[in-house]
Amino acid sequence: MENKLPTIEINERYCKGCHICVEFCPKQVLEMKGFVVAVKNLEACIKCMQCELRCPDFAIKVIP
Amino acid sequence: MAFDYEKYIRPGKLPHIWCPGCGHGIVMKGMIRAMDTLGLEKNNTAIVSGIGCASRLPGYIDCCTLHTAHGRAAAFATGVKLAKPEMTVILVGGDGDGTAIGGNHFIHACRRNIDMTYIIMNNYIYGMTGGQFSPTTPHMHKASTTPYGNPDPSFDIAKLAIGAGATFVARGTAFHANQIDKLIVEAIQHKGFSVVEILDDCPTTYGRRNKFKSVIEMMNRLKEVAVPVKAAEKMTPEQLAGKVLTGILYKEDKPEYCSEYQKVIERAGGAAR
Ligand SMILES: Cc1ncc(C[n+]2csc(CCOP(=O)(O)OP(=O)(O)O)c2C)c(N)n1
Ligand code: SF4
Ligand code: SF4
Ligand code: SF4
Ligand SMILES: [Mg+2]
Predict the structure, then answer these.
(1) Is residue B132 part of a domain?
(2) Strands (DSSP E) along B174-241, which ranges?
(3) What is the 3-state secondary structure (H, E, C) of B160-182?
């Protein structure tokens, strides 16, 4: 149970590519793909929710 | 757990109009979390704003909302609160709306100590109209109307609010996203006029004129300047130079306006509530 990977949902229609989630993720889980964000390394995610908390655009959700 | 923000948002309203990296969205999310913590009922909550990018916020929220005239949120909100004192009334807006054209309404709402919460998003600029300087633009910073630097000293919104009589005054930042809802919860719970200033970023009209290379630089700047009030108690004036205090800055219990007004109604022979 503890090792279950989270689901990171990105709403590409809402994401404005501001980089905030990429920059403030402590584990470099996210990256930019063109103008929107994408998951690069889900295994590294510690489910800290920083990306979801900081996104100004309601575009990223972490389901632990 | 992922937070379900969309249950407080009017269907079909997202994506919002704010620019990439604009902190207004971060503040709106904080406000929604505070509404959720307090279990505010949509039909018993009014959100009132003036004009500006920040003032677009009520349009997104699924509760009773009023988008009024520039600088006039406090006047309209006072009307709502006096007519329906049982409602939770929240004012939102920008530094320009609240301290330039609306400065007079702001100080008098503070003076009356009417039980409402004012969330003021201070991005140091008139964002919506293309970056004219506002009363909070720092000295010698650039705006479209001060291309060689702003000669004016700037307002400290929190000090202004305390001086004018607000009985709860707090400050947070768009970087410290986790704190925003906690400050707003305390502000709404306080009986009296509460001011929550959130230091915010406008990358589009302020950042690019003032040598910020990115939204991230603006966020990091907010992180660097903020000092929690508790931590500041142990710091020297030298260490505090250029810093801004965050957290609950002032709290006082004083008679509240709607209660005082009710006494007048009763004295004049009107109906008791
Ligand atoms: C009576 C009146 N005067 C001027 C304007 C133009 N105007 C619209 S928004 C604004 C400033 C908004 O700045 P602020 O409140 O800081 O909000 P921001 O856009 O920075 O979030 C001005 C001057 C107006 N709409 N109405
Ligand atoms: S939850 Fe934390 S670790 Fe996982 S992607 Fe978001 S910011 Fe990175
Ligand atoms: S913070 Fe939000 S809008 Fe910005 S890049 Fe990440 S998902 Fe997109
Ligand atoms: S102009 Fe500035 S304040 Fe307005 S939405 Fe864009 S970044 Fe935000
Ligand atoms: Mg502004």
Answers:
(1) yes
(2) 194-199, 226-228
(3) HHHHHCCCEEEEEECCCHHHHHH
**Overall number of domains in chain B:** 1
Q: For chains A and B, what is the number of CB pairs under 8 angstroms?
A: 59
Give the distance, in angstroms, between the CA of residue B205 and the centroid of all CA atoms in the same chain.
Answer: 19
| pLDDT for residue B271 | 75
Compute the distance between CA of residue A18 and CA of residue B24 in angstroms, rounded to an integer: 13
What is the distance between the alpha carbons of residues B168 and B260, in angstroms, rounded to a whole number? 18
Query: A57 touching B, CB under 8 A?
Result: yes
- Is A54 part of the contact surface with chain B (CB cutoff 8 Å)? yes
Looking at domain A7-63, its CATH class is alpha beta
**Spatial separation of the C-alpha atoms in residues B77 and B67, rounded to whole Å:** 10
| pLDDT per residue as tens digits for the range B99-144 | 999 999 999 999 999 999 999 999 999 999 999 999 999 999 999 9
Q: How many CB atoms lie within 10 A of CB A49?
A: 17
- Kindly state if the Cβ of A21 falls inside 6 Å of ligand 3: yes
Ligand 3 atom closest to Cα of B21? 4
Touching A: B residues 151-190, CB under 8 Å = 177-178
Whether residue B24 lies inside any domain: the answer is yes
**Residue B188 exposed, middle or buried by CB count within 10 Å (0-12, 13-18, 19+):** buried
C-beta atoms of B23 and A14 within 8 A: no
CB-based contact A56 B216, cutoff 8 Å: no
- The answer to whether B4 contacts chain A (CB < 8 Å) is no
- By DSSP bridging, strand A36-39 and strand A30-33 are antiparallel
CATH of the domain at B185: 3.40.50.970
